[in-house]
Amino acid sequence: MSRSNVSYHHGNLAVALEEAALALLVEEGSSALSLRAVARRAGVSHNAPYHHFGDRQGLLKSVAARGLRDLLAAMVTARDSTSSPKQRLLAASFAYVDFASENRPLFELIFDPEICNPKEPNPVTGPLIEANDEFLAETVRAALPQETAETDVRTTAAALWGAVHGLAVLVSTQHLDASVVRPGLESLLELRFLE
Amino acid sequence: MSRSNVSYHHGNLAVALEEAALALLVEEGSSALSLRAVARRAGVSHNAPYHHFGDRQGLLKSVAARGLRDLLAAMVTARDSTSSPKQRLLAASFAYVDFASENRPLFELIFDPEICNPKEPNPVTGPLIEANDEFLAETVRAALPQETAETDVRTTAAALWGAVHGLAVLVSTQHLDASVVRPGLESLLELRFLE
DNA sequence: ACGCCTATCTTGGCATTGACAAGATACTTG
DNA sequence: CAAGTATCTTGTCAATGCCAAGATAGGCGT
User: Fold this and answer.
1) CATH T-level topology, domain B1-54
2) Over the stretch B30-45, which tens digit does the pLDDT of each residue have?
3) What chain B residue is nearest to A186 in terms of C-alpha separation?
């Protein structure tokens, strides 16, 4: 399956291009993320990506999907590192903010409405968005009283997601200092959601 | 001061360009916001903007500053439409979310870290960012018990800003439904901040 | 009033980019 | 082994951001 690096047919170009794009995103920022630069970095011609991704947005969507997977994985890991439902919710929230701060360009890509639009269904990003929604709802549900109605769970989850996302954005863009995240989230979370 | 529309020297190009950019942003979205398109719309040559704004980012920063002014004005108006400190805080928050939903491209421009970076001081956007911070702190302070320490005011303001901003972003990008804003914010605000 | 001066605007040009078209190459399947 | 197809390349085009140089006009001192 894996073939010579110098063969005409790359053999794994789609993946290689995604990784080149990710590397460029990390090293040079999103402004350097041109299709041609990605192709150059992967060592192929400027038009090679089109066969695999259709257009620029196609590649970006794949990269965003990869980022979404990583974000979800980070939250799952963080959540599963404790047992108390409330601590699990807090841990996942911190993981979210940390991910945004440590991968700002990727985080921005994930929430770029031109790339990941939850309303127009996309086979690559769509399922991941749903998986994140579900993870959030589950984690919140576990922290609420058992008899809580599903509607209330969803409302609470939405409010919480908003708070966590907002802090993540404002901290990662340096509008807020990172030191406010912990006290801020704790004050918001210790409210009335959790027993 | 105002001169003929057809004269060689426009007389008010900077403002005209800002307005053309805003119009393009509203009508065509941020992807259509090229310097040349703005110049075309203003009826001048493709290089006329450079004298006034230096480069593309310069123009965008001016547009973002205009947006920041509008956002602040909307919040002030909303806040001053009621008298109870808590209702004033709620009203300003809703105005923030509404502004984001009704002016998504402009809102994105305002919080684009390439355009409005709070860390590298900018004479046009910097003071406005501070004014918004101050407005937020004041409005929060009025809603907290009088003896609240300034540090706590700032922390609370940061947490609240995060929650409001996150809801604004997620709603305006359609990740969340607008119907969650009111119950979400109210549940977050009725917590422990307000007497 | 006259002429220079400078801010303002235009034309021309260059490198880069996203996208399309057509050709070259190599894997694969019958 | 030959035909077919997926993959990759070269060539090209319009659009864009920006730089350089020229054109125009309003303001200034004399």
Assistant:
1) Arc Repressor Mutant, subunit A (1.10.10)
2) 999 999 999 999 999 9
3) B159
